[in-house]
Write a structure and sequence with these properties.
single chain; 577 residues; alpha/beta; Glucose Oxidase, domain 1; Enzyme I, Chain A, domain 2; TIM Barrel; 3 domains; 8-stranded parallel β-sheet; globular; binds phosphoenolpyruvate; binds magnesium ion
Length: 577
Amino acid sequence: MTFSLHGVAVSGGIAIGNAYIIVHDEFEVRDNLIEPSQIDAEVVRLHAAIDATASQLRAMREKIPANTPSDVAAFIDTYLLMLTDTTLSDEPIRMIRERRHNAAFALRNQRDAIVAVFEQMDDPYLQTRHDDVDHVVNRILRTLFRDDLTRTDENTQRMQGAILLADDLAPADALLMQHYGVLGFVTEYGGPTSHTSILARSLGVPGIVGVHHARRFVHDGEVLIIDGNEGVVIGDPDQRTLNHYRRRLDERLKYVAKLNKLKRAQCVTRDGVAIELQANVELPTDFAAAREVGASGVGLYRTEFLYMNRVDIPTEDEHFDAYKHLVETVRGVPVTIRTMDIGGDKQVDPALTNRAKGANPALGLRAIRLGLKEPQLFVPQVRAIIKASALGAVRMMIPMLSHIDEAKQVREIVRSIQQEFKSGGVAFDPGMLVGGMIEVPVAAIYADGFAQVLDFFSIGTNDLIQYAIAIDRVNDEVNYLYDPLNPGVLRLIAMTIKAGQKAKVPVAMCGEMAGDVRCTRMLLGMGLEAFSVHPAILLEIKRVISDTELQHVRSIAEKALKTTDMDRFKDLLQQLG
Ligand code: PEP
Ligand code: MG
């Protein structure tokens, strides 16, 4: 019987496909039996995954800075011991050989057996050590999973055209999904501005998050419809429902065709004021999309992708190649390369950062904080950005600034690299602009101070809202409070815009709010002159901008920012249309 489940719409579009249910962090763990002819190869695969995991841990151990507490090295040594202990591998190998289980399933089974032994221990300390077993096994499973990417087995074929259901998806998994040709996804947790959701929009994969217990209601393999605009999952649809959604898919295609006519149109308001409309990019596929929709520049290039799904640090050359590719693809328009924003909800392999995720990653050593602490991650990137400035209009942007000294330190790093390049005859643009993201409330409040050291601002509303309202952007339980039009949030944005105008520092916005059509007129009214949005939504925003009378929205925004009467505030929002 047809049923529906509701969640938070995070990536628009409609998808119709068969459900593929996955278990968190155990993407590949299914009890598919292997063929007798595959047994030897499967044992080799398990050994190779264990060896690769051990190499990653050894590399991590070597990179531990001298001043790190000795416990950290001891932990890694314990993990390495576990990996070489045959308790971990003997039983899985027997399961592969005698019962034809696949390596991942056999390994997970053994993990459960070991964990059960730990849990029965009386000593509370030993009881908690099962986390270590989990950690080690998950590392091996991940290696096996990546290996699966290149294998066209039954699972990967099933993912083609499927709708994934998981408890949660890490950004790294969202990227890997693309290889499988997944049509859409549903998760039980997560928020609309999590990096996974942003990536999904970037990949054009419809998605819904926060559908609690979805996997209890949906059977593996059954037909599902997901409506990524409304946040609705429909299971076991009858013919009428299917026809309805197929029609909507058609209508959407027609609407997109209509919007496409705006590609080459100027981005001006009805009263003739030009507005900058740039693109947010992340994956190489976005570069071409940005050019295709006629973006006037790239307002945000998220570079974390370069650090994901790997255990070694990207080199200066790798960075440079990526930036060159971007500059050459968008041809002639300015690009803003944001330095690494690793941490928070954009986790990379701990081998790169020399540290675990931490209890409160959004408030931890994230983005520029990590970059200044671990220059081996950051400096090759800055060098590559400076080199890329010789290729076209390249600007560098610093994420998560919370203190002016961070901006000053970065400027000093830039200055000394430029000095070195000058002496060595390496080409670069000495006028390269260095700006910062205003995404921590103190930076908005103190924007006039930041304007003294930065060449431009870009407001990162995803984080600004997270920190201002104190809602973890990946926590679906507090999603209901996520509101870009919260009057307090609007005041922080207004302060930033005003400070920029006063100091003649250009202000853009690159958070998801910039691409939210419900906010466009308010932002225009507040004086925002540059929007940076994902290419998939750019034309829609252009349509709203060109349909807005600036004079009109200015006076409404002014009143909305002043009032403390919530009913009046809502009424003013409605007047914006
Ligand atoms: C933001 O915080 O609004 C932003 C653009 O950065 P990210 O989403 O990558 O944290
Ligand atoms: Mg941010």
